[in-house]
Amino acid sequence: MRLIVFFSLLLSVSNLSAQVQFTGKVTDNKNVVQTAVYIVEADEEVQTQVDGTFNYQFENTGIYHFNIENSSGFIQTFELNLTKAEERFEFVLSTEDSQVDLLNEIVISGTMKPVLRSESLVPVEVYTPTFFKKNPTPNIFEALQNVNGVKPQVNCSVCNTGDIHINGLEGPYTFVLIDGMPIVSGLSTVYGLSGIPNSLIEKVEIVKGPASSLYGSEAVGGLINIITKNPLYASKYAVDVFGTSWGEINTDLGLSLKVSDKVHWLMGVNYFNYSNPIDKNKDEFTDVTLQDRISIFNKITFERKSKKQLALATRYFYEDRWGGQMNWNRNFRGGTDVYGESIYTNRWELLGLYELPFTEKITSQFSITTHDQNSMYGDTPFMAKQNIAFTQFYWDKTYGKHDLLVGTAARYQMYDDNSAAKPTADETFIPSIFVQDSYEINKRFSLLGGLRYDYHKDHKSIITPRFAFRYESKKGDIMRLNAGTGFRVVNLFTEEHAALSGARDVIVLEDLKPEKSYNVNVNYLKTWMLKDDFILQAEAAAWYTYFTNSIIPDYDSNPNQIIYKNLEGYAETKGISLNVDAVYANNLKIMMGVTLQDVSKVENNIRTQQMLTEKFSGTWVVSYTFNRLNLTVDYSGNLYGPMRLPLVSELDPRLPYSETYSIQNIQLTYKGFKHFELYGGIKNLLNWTPNKNNPFLIARSNDPFNKNVQYDANGSALATPENPYGLVFDPTYIYAPNQGLRTFFGVRYNF
């Protein structure tokens, strides 16, 4: 009996000695910081006191990760090895961010599981509000212009609609999520990235390459996951207002409240207005679309004893935009006297996340969206409605060295419009199941395999596999290999705005089959810790994607038509990219990237460069902080190579390829006031616009209803003295923002 008591006491002492009483202090080099500290392994959050300190008792010694949000709004991760019964550590937060700083950020988009970015088998790029503030924009669509390999593409000279290209692939190949939910798709592809309040964005995760094995259709070229802030950590009050010399006004408002001990509420409002018609290129059309837009976002989180998450979010979006002839007003909407493109958009979103109260980690998610678009393109009406309901359950389980994810999803979509292609409303229901296994062979080698099964009523069974490999050298170099397939179910008129704008006839030659892709990409990451507080990081990537059943708009076969059909051949995209980040003593930060790519199609043994796709591009952001002056200077820009452009006729005098061009910006930010920031600068320093060295941008802008165009027996425009180039009205010859140099000034307040 005494022996049992002795061993029991010995075991108690042993357990006691393994405990760690930890005291932390959070500062930003100058002041203590009151914030929340998330302890990853314990899955608990601790609030710092007035003096910046916090206490926590760990049951065991070992390695722990601490996530802390700094004043700029991004999360820093600290890794500590706790070995003694009492430990103390001071967490010093950076005031800026770069990809170097974010190497140990927790990411979820690559594998749908939280993992350190450096340990993810799928390369994930992370961008925070600090990065986007270096070139402030009124929406996330424009904000992505300084991300290497990502291009906000303008598709219409009149209404300025656009989409996001990743590695040269068009917008419909890019999957956009909000908090991991597929909110932006189908009808909202063109407008869905407008109106997301920037003040509520915690970070944006970007995965380049197919992710259909986890996310299904549309995740062929890559995905963008916009992650909103947790109400528990967001600023209590946040205001960001800026205006430009062109008359644009953008306002972001944020409010975070503690409703009760267990309920936290976050609200954000974005309002953008531009109502100043400008025609600097003298074609009698507005250079920039006029817009009146409001977006209201609400998010509520509920704390529970089980530490399981429960969150609900809603968003309402309304936009009134128009572009056209300078003398257009609403009295001319839908008529043939004055040309205008007028679009009213109403949109509701509801999304939620619930971790089921089981011992196992089972998560459910759902989203419901309704999108109503009332549009007039000249005298052509386009009235469309789309309702989407989505739900999924997934089980996150660790078994030995296996990290499993098993899930099921279901997507319902109702789509209806007044076009000839949709005589009746279309309803689809796509059930899915998916499985993923990440296996750690040892500390240096890891493997991942995944498989997804979808069933579509028209296309039947669709299977998409995925494979990934990660290797980390003794020096910390990381190499990743990813391979897999993707698929995309096409919603033609919801995605192709060019099919509605202008005088070209839209021809759909056949029942369109789903596109399929086969992809492989290699990624290599290396970090140098140099002397004098200088850190350098380089990330190189190479990729190849092969497409079958591609649906590429054909502008070439007939200048009066846009022809849609499955490609009788194949399409491919291949390229290499390099990102370089440098940080020196927290004062100088440089982020630079370059991409070389070839996006083309092969049909009848003829290779053709894809329309509106550049051969090379580059981006950069250079920031320097003068500490004594509380002043930061940001110089940002991009560079794009020639793109093939859609001409209307063989006599069309416009350039068949765009010229190499660059958009550059500079900004000064003063942070000498408590809670306040003042910022201002110049956008498009070189005053470059796409009409440079072109006789005109919009074909037949003087006759947008083609009243004076003469046609031959085949319906092709004839060259006449009044129309010497044989043109019809066409606004699709556009490849960059048609807005020149402008100044801006803004104020930010965070409390």
From TrEMBL:
<keyword id="KW-0813">Transport</keyword>
<feature type="domain" description="TonB-dependent receptor plug">
    <location>
        <begin position="119"/>
        <end position="222"/>
    </location>
</feature>
<dbReference type="GO" id="GO:0015344">
    <property type="term" value="F:siderophore uptake transmembrane transporter activity"/>
</dbReference>
<keyword id="KW-1134">Transmembrane beta strand</keyword>
<dbReference type="Pfam" id="PF07715">
    <property type="entry name" value="Plug"/>
</dbReference>
<dbReference type="InterPro" id="IPR039426">
    <property type="entry name" value="TonB-dep_rcpt-like"/>
</dbReference>
<dbReference type="InterPro" id="IPR037066">
    <property type="entry name" value="Plug_dom_sf"/>
</dbReference>
<dbReference type="Pfam" id="PF00593">
    <property type="entry name" value="TonB_dep_Rec_b-barrel"/>
</dbReference>
<keyword id="KW-0998">Cell outer membrane</keyword>
<keyword id="KW-0798">TonB box</keyword>
<feature type="domain" description="TonB-dependent receptor-like beta-barrel">
    <location>
        <begin position="274"/>
        <end position="685"/>
    </location>
</feature>
<keyword id="KW-0472">Membrane</keyword>
<comment type="similarity">
    <text>Belongs to the TonB-dependent receptor family.</text>
</comment>
<dbReference type="InterPro" id="IPR012910">
    <property type="entry name" value="Plug_dom"/>
</dbReference>
<dbReference type="GO" id="GO:0009279">
    <property type="term" value="C:cell outer membrane"/>
</dbReference>
<dbReference type="GO" id="GO:0044718">
    <property type="term" value="P:siderophore transmembrane transport"/>
</dbReference>
<dbReference type="InterPro" id="IPR000531">
    <property type="entry name" value="Beta-barrel_TonB"/>
</dbReference>
<keyword id="KW-0675">Receptor</keyword>
<keyword id="KW-0812">Transmembrane</keyword>
<protein>
    <submittedName>
        <fullName>TonB-dependent receptor</fullName>
    </submittedName>
</protein>
<feature type="signal peptide">
    <location>
        <begin position="1"/>
        <end position="18"/>
    </location>
</feature>
<dbReference type="InterPro" id="IPR036942">
    <property type="entry name" value="Beta-barrel_TonB_sf"/>
</dbReference>
<keyword id="KW-0732">Signal</keyword>
